[in-house]
Amino acid sequence: GKLEFHDLLVLARDLLRDNADARHHFQQRFSHILIDEFQDTDPIQAEIAVFIAGEDAGPGPADWTNMKPVPGKLFVVGDPKQSIYRFRRADIAALEEVRGLLGSQATYLEQNFRSQVPVLAWVNELFQNWMGDGDGKLQARYVPLTGRWEPPEAAPPMGVHCLGGVRDGKAAEVGQEEVQALAALLRAIKGNGWKARDGDGVCDARYQDICLLLPSRARLRALEQALGDAGVPYRVESQSLVLGTQDVRELLNCLRAIDSPADQVAVVAAVRSSAFGCSDVELLQFVENGGRFDYIAPGAGDGPVREALERLRYFHEQRPWRVIDDLIEEFVRERQMVEACFGRTRPRERWRRLRFVIERARAFTQVGGSSLRAFLNWMERQAKEGARMVEIPVPETDEDAVRIMTIHASKGLEFPIVVLAGLGSKPNNSTGKVIADRRGTAVEVSIGSGEQGVFCTAGYADAKEREKAADEAEAVRLMYVAATRAKDHLVVSLFHPRRVGRGCPAGKIAELCRERPDLWREVGPDELISTPHRAALRAPETVALGTAAAGRA
After folding, report:
1. Element (H, E) at 287
2. Element holding 224 (H helix, E strand)
């Protein structure tokens, strides 16, 4: 619990760089080094590999950039097009630098064993134009993929399908239209008998064959509401998405209130949460009767709010003497939050989220964390960082449900049907006020508010432009990773406000695909109605009711 993973990397690198005896020892110990997924390698990890694989540099400190690996000792496999972990210092430049040290031509593995030929044809066309030949520093060169699987006859045909498009409304309105269309689409995929590959044949698609990929959790709450209303079962599997759900936020608010009686916002949120269930009317009555939202000195109020504050005080007093995960587990059990899950929609999913918080607390305790406040701050940081977390999807394969995860969490996975959504917003390329030179030792700083601040170091403006360009290049690679998760069907949601235009991924994809309409098909409005519902709409009594209610609707 004293050293983080990055500390271990730095200390190991320093040992090999500065200590010739240690360097010689490990060079002799390891005859061959294989690094897979090399595009995700931290530059410090690359240094360690070169120090071990390199020829003996003699006594004293060594410079890894001047070392030549022993021929045949270092073997790396990686796809620069899938480099999406810049926040972990992995970037295109590091990969190219090691390739230069190896001094040999790369062998390209172009055969794809996952996706149907029509999916790869669309992917090749899109990213050949979007990535191009790359520059070896910010962007990778696009190498087209060769497909193996020719799709069988199916309706709709296997391949790429586009949903929605440009809209004139505001972002929130477009987003709401998108989640409603997505819910209808997911119902239609199962209800209308979309096909998925099953060995040498095909079978009707199930909900568990579908994965809905999101670049962020911005639309998650609205999406959950739409899926719940449509009766579509789903599982939120990415850690960063789970942290953004209402169930987890409620529990964390309760824990924040337990930790700090002075945090009245958290106290009110806790009392109003499903753990206590106090209504706004009860809150108002409590205050009018002389009560205060301070469980140390709650005043004269009584009723359900007073009882809730007393329980918060009990857990606050227990806090210094209890292990964090034990305290949280008792709170969840006492407030019957598990039982409450089974009186609401998606009970299993809701319980899994509560369990996730308890498991995170247990992991935090095992590495030396002892403070509830430190645990809550740690959870808040992870929630804010989003994709910067090390995403670990946790599938539960015995449930027929749509899987929802971030694109980062999907890397390395594959799904019969991928629905790529949430592409209608401009990527957040905020570089922050402190920018470190990834290849050197300089640190550029901006002080004060505004675009450039009140004071900036001499190289801040240039560094900011470089970071922005690197983020934009990585955003393209993120779309590539998402598109190549699909085996049989790839559905791309192109909903985006007109004012955003090509500034968002949806707008850019729509522009680049416009010239090749033969490579994709548009999902029409009629396809968003599943067969059972279409039959119901044709029933005379249903049509009559719909006609009578048309004016009110």
Report:
1. helix 280-288
2. helix 220-230
